[in-house]
Amino acid sequence: MKPKLLQVKDLHVHFKTYAGIVQAVRGVSFELYEGETLAIVGESGSGKSVTSNALMKLIPQPPGIYAGGEILFNGRDIIPLSDKEMAKIRGNDIAMIFQDPMTSLNPTMKIGKQITEVILQHKAASRSDAKERAMELLNLVGIPFPEKRYKQYPHELSGGMRQRIVIAIALAANPKLLIADEPTTALDVTIQAQILELMKDIQKRSNTSIIFITHDLGVVANVADRVAVMYAGQIVEYGTVNEIFYNPKHPYTWGLLGSMPDLSNSSDELLRTIPGSPPNLIHPPVGDAFAPRNEFAMAIDYEAEPPMFQVSPTHFAKTWLLHPDAPKIDVPQVVQQRIDRYVKEGEA
Amino acid sequence: MTEQKLRDGAFDIVGMHREEQEQLSSKPVSFWKEVLYRFKQNKLAVCGLIVLIIIALMAIIVPEVSQYKYSDQLGVYNQPPSAEHWFGTDDLGRDIFVRIWAGARISLFIGITAALIDVIIGVIWGSIAGLAGGRTDNIMMRIADVLTAVPYLLVVIILIVVMEPGLVPMIIALCITGWVNMARIVRGEVMSIKNQEYVLAARTLGAGTAHLIRKHLIPNALGAILVTMTLTVPAAIFTEAFLSYLGLGVPAPRASWGTMASEGNKALMSYPWRLFFPAFFISLTIFAFNAVGDGLRDALDPKLRK
Amino acid sequence: MLQKKILEVNGLKQYFGSASNPIKAVDDISFYVYEGETLGLVGESGSGKSTTGRSIIRLYDVTGGDIHFKGQNIAAIKSRKDLKHFNKEMQMIFQDPYASLNPRMTASEIITEGFDIHGMYKNKKERAEKVAELLEAVGLNRMHASRYAHEFSGGQRQRIGIARALSLDPSFIIADEPISALDVSIQAQVVNLLKQIQRERNLTYLFIAHDLSMVKYISDRIAVMYRGKIVEIGPADDIYNTPRHPYTKSLLSAVPQPDPLSERTRTRIPYVHEETDGDMIAHEVSTDHYVFATSEQLARWQL
């Protein structure tokens, strides 16, 4: 097994609001190995972005509160660290890419300067060395005519090019961990495909670990080695990408997979959906938070929170359906048929 | 954990709870309720508001119920503060406590007038320019630019040449130049609101201009208008005090904080309280208005909204 | 099959900016929509797909071309009264469930806005009943009428937007990326809802989107836009299975599928735009399936 870079243990993050305390992250645990990509997938309000911001300690306090748990980066808990110590880790060891490239770039500064600034900040180098490194980075992220781009301002570039610049800046200090929060959501599909290719390529070369936050299952299937599915502030299913897509165990994961149309869906039949909306995390439901929207909910789901059941050494799911006494429920037909077809096509 | 004893029937499928699927947070919260909540969280702003209420009440009550009138010359000159005269008396033997609250009336009057002018001229000017856009907008905003280029002080001085000094020239000058800032802010707000999807939606429903202004533009620009207003008021109060200090304001024997400070300044070495009280209330009022304005702006800031 | 054309667009042009150097957001496009069908309009940002929708519903004054809706050229309507009548017939659903609802209004106020404008349902009780009916038609609770827009989740807000669009009982709805800002499970809910109300109310949709898999699912026919022009239009299955234009091929190859095995081997087909001097016309390559190209290009793309 590869060495562990990051371990999150029972993380809780709360926010104080007018209506009450929002329990945005309610006991999240996962680990990340060197050189792998973990995708955290979930709907808005599931706590996936709060989790990733917490890893960078970017939760504003107040209204945010780290209400418990540990974030061990290279074995050291970063929650108690001061802002100054954290600033050293950010950029150097952990870098982040956000959804909107325009907000992470300074509109009044030339691209070249923005990159060299970061290089100089993290490492003692001469200006000319920094420039050389910046050109290297621009080449690495696939920017044509880097000499010309170096002297341009962010608004002169397209959205895809801007996101490449953001990635170049994130890579400037050779971080061990790259957190990408919906980095392709604001981009067109063809540009998205290019950015995903780029990120995989970079990972292959530099062995960076990536945490990829997204709500798009297609993107997850494309980039991830392992997947954590989040719902209502908790990880409900966790496993390798093949386990999640071909052997899903949690009814929420079934719902997610079933609600995506694909070629086999006839336009005459309705999509399988998850009815309703995610719960209010000011008063999280008792028991399994997904129960009210789960057609397979059992009496116990409304009484007690399910533990994480182990499916395989790498696959876990938080649902009472995996309890030995629970009735055997099959994966919904539409989802199972699609999985069978994918696997068959994959083998062919 | 999975070994615990579970009751019979725990694993019966009971299905979804539809009524919980579309639940909303228990209490309905209107936008303004939330604003009020956030405003209350801001201690400084709440203090400012309380101070303003007290000043306003005192200004209304004290000159009416006091045994002295602001212009009464009591024959006791330059008395220090005492039980008889709480803030002392001035060189003509007038009670400073009463004069302070009489002066507060003038300060608040000019402040409120400035706010009204802001709303009446500035808001209308800005919304028409923002809504119309194009050439109309261009002409209206260039006129506004020209008006800001004329210094307020100069307008007041020119007006005093042709009329008596006092509140009238100040208000006329405010009408000429005081609303431009508000007009600019409202124009910006209107420009951004009119391209919002909910305004487009109203247009596809067939809404006319009057409907758009009433239902969408005003309610959504109200926050920015309020904030600008709370910051216009202290500026006007300060300007009045400043002009009165220079002798361009209200004439004797009427009391204005500016005139009182000007007179008190002459006697600073011997009777410091004569300067202290008017100066203190000018600062306190302006500070309180600014605190309230800041608090209001933070409370309205949509970026903090969840 | 219904083959009555409810909307016909001929040579629509929508330019912005100065007359001497205009930005050609929509540059001479023609298409039609059959009554009761869904036409998907796909393209990337800047392709002019949203502008097309907004021009048709008269949010912009069109630069050129005709838009015939139920036989009337709506591009030429000038009077407010005629426009108001047209507004009842054609409605729009917007992309951003946050920006498309006025945050200072309650759900009921949003839904009844059209009634106020057109002076309908003046009786209070009747109006409340209509609001409740519309809320329930989009799967919301009638108790929600008095709640403010910001209290709802994204999916719920989008449903309020749909209820607003339905309030005037239109026959044609332009859905401008109605699901792209929503979560996956909510997208499916909204798409199902749109399909269901289409069936119940016999609606025609122009469905604008960039998500090809959803468009394929909801549309009967698909039009692909690139830089202000429709490059290919045809039945959804034809576009998906036998795309002809290289841009359509490139677009299709870029969509990730929820299938890790195929994702590992999927290769993206890059698209390089070629400027041509030849006459660009719409060639019918199979029934109802048109490709916009020169004859030389079409022959080359055949391979």
TrEMBL record, chain A:
<dbReference type="GO" id="GO:0015833">
    <property type="term" value="P:peptide transport"/>
</dbReference>
<keyword id="KW-1003">Cell membrane</keyword>
<dbReference type="InterPro" id="IPR003593">
    <property type="entry name" value="AAA+_ATPase"/>
</dbReference>
<protein>
    <submittedName>
        <fullName>Peptide ABC transporter ATP-binding protein</fullName>
    </submittedName>
</protein>
<comment type="similarity">
    <text>Belongs to the ABC transporter superfamily.</text>
</comment>
<keyword id="KW-0472">Membrane</keyword>
<dbReference type="InterPro" id="IPR013563">
    <property type="entry name" value="Oligopep_ABC_C"/>
</dbReference>
<dbReference type="InterPro" id="IPR050388">
    <property type="entry name" value="ABC_Ni/Peptide_Import"/>
</dbReference>
<dbReference type="InterPro" id="IPR027417">
    <property type="entry name" value="P-loop_NTPase"/>
</dbReference>
<dbReference type="GO" id="GO:0005886">
    <property type="term" value="C:plasma membrane"/>
</dbReference>
<keyword id="KW-0813">Transport</keyword>
<dbReference type="Pfam" id="PF00005">
    <property type="entry name" value="ABC_tran"/>
</dbReference>
<dbReference type="InterPro" id="IPR003439">
    <property type="entry name" value="ABC_transporter-like_ATP-bd"/>
</dbReference>
<feature type="domain" description="ABC transporter">
    <location>
        <begin position="6"/>
        <end position="257"/>
    </location>
</feature>
<dbReference type="GO" id="GO:0005524">
    <property type="term" value="F:ATP binding"/>
</dbReference>
UniProtKB/TrEMBL annotation, chain B:
<feature type="transmembrane region" description="Helical">
    <location>
        <begin position="143"/>
        <end position="161"/>
    </location>
</feature>
<dbReference type="InterPro" id="IPR000515">
    <property type="entry name" value="MetI-like"/>
</dbReference>
<keyword id="KW-0813">Transport</keyword>
<keyword id="KW-1133">Transmembrane helix</keyword>
<keyword id="KW-0472">Membrane</keyword>
<feature type="transmembrane region" description="Helical">
    <location>
        <begin position="275"/>
        <end position="296"/>
    </location>
</feature>
<dbReference type="InterPro" id="IPR035906">
    <property type="entry name" value="MetI-like_sf"/>
</dbReference>
<dbReference type="Pfam" id="PF00528">
    <property type="entry name" value="BPD_transp_1"/>
</dbReference>
<dbReference type="GO" id="GO:0005886">
    <property type="term" value="C:plasma membrane"/>
</dbReference>
<feature type="transmembrane region" description="Helical">
    <location>
        <begin position="106"/>
        <end position="131"/>
    </location>
</feature>
<feature type="transmembrane region" description="Helical">
    <location>
        <begin position="221"/>
        <end position="248"/>
    </location>
</feature>
<feature type="domain" description="ABC transmembrane type-1">
    <location>
        <begin position="104"/>
        <end position="293"/>
    </location>
</feature>
<dbReference type="GO" id="GO:0055085">
    <property type="term" value="P:transmembrane transport"/>
</dbReference>
<protein>
    <submittedName>
        <fullName>Diguanylate cyclase</fullName>
    </submittedName>
</protein>
<feature type="transmembrane region" description="Helical">
    <location>
        <begin position="44"/>
        <end position="62"/>
    </location>
</feature>
TrEMBL record, chain C:
<dbReference type="InterPro" id="IPR013563">
    <property type="entry name" value="Oligopep_ABC_C"/>
</dbReference>
<comment type="similarity">
    <text>Belongs to the ABC transporter superfamily.</text>
</comment>
<dbReference type="InterPro" id="IPR003593">
    <property type="entry name" value="AAA+_ATPase"/>
</dbReference>
<dbReference type="InterPro" id="IPR017871">
    <property type="entry name" value="ABC_transporter-like_CS"/>
</dbReference>
<keyword id="KW-0813">Transport</keyword>
<keyword id="KW-0067">ATP-binding</keyword>
<dbReference type="GO" id="GO:0016887">
    <property type="term" value="F:ATP hydrolysis activity"/>
</dbReference>
<dbReference type="InterPro" id="IPR003439">
    <property type="entry name" value="ABC_transporter-like_ATP-bd"/>
</dbReference>
<dbReference type="GO" id="GO:0005524">
    <property type="term" value="F:ATP binding"/>
</dbReference>
<keyword id="KW-0547">Nucleotide-binding</keyword>
<protein>
    <submittedName>
        <fullName>Peptide ABC transporter ATP-binding protein</fullName>
    </submittedName>
</protein>
<feature type="domain" description="ABC transporter">
    <location>
        <begin position="7"/>
        <end position="252"/>
    </location>
</feature>
<dbReference type="Pfam" id="PF08352">
    <property type="entry name" value="oligo_HPY"/>
</dbReference>
<dbReference type="GO" id="GO:0055085">
    <property type="term" value="P:transmembrane transport"/>
</dbReference>
<dbReference type="InterPro" id="IPR027417">
    <property type="entry name" value="P-loop_NTPase"/>
</dbReference>
